[in-house]
Specification:
Belongs to the UPF0235 family. The chain is of the alpha+beta class. The protein is about 25% helix and about 35% strand. It has two helices and six strands. The chain has helices at about 50-60, 90-95; strands at about 5-10, 15-20, 30-35, 35-40, 70-75, 80-85. The model has no long low-confidence stretch (mean pLDDT about 95).
């Protein structure tokens, strides 16, 4: 399994440290930014739209319902910690491989 400095196990899910770049041309994973997974979002950081877009993107990427993805820290910051329920570290590695 690949080294995942931005992911750690948390009970029945994982915690991901992400660095968000809003107002990008398209929504996509853009690699690693320090110890965080960099994600570019098409949505602007206004009225929670970037947070909603982030959660929806991660839910689709990992094949879980939107309600399984929750921002636990950094609601108004670029650097966030996101909890994804029902996903393992191996799932994260497989999705990003």
């Amino acid at each position: 399994m690949m080294d995942l400095p931005f992911a750690r196990s948390d009970g029945d899910g994982v915690l991901l440290t992400v660095h968000v770049q809003p107002r990008a041309a398209r929504t996509q994973v853009a690699g690693v930014h320090g110890d965080a997974l960099k994600i570019r979002l098409n949505a602007p950081p206004v009225d929670g739209r970037a947070n909603d877009a982030l959660c929806a993107f991660l839910a689709e990427m990992f094949g879980v319902p939107r309600r399984a993805v929750e921002i636990v820290q950094g609601d108004t910051a670029r650097r966030k910690i996101v909890r994804i329920e029902g996903v393992t570290l191996q799932d994260v590695g497989n999705c990003l491989a």
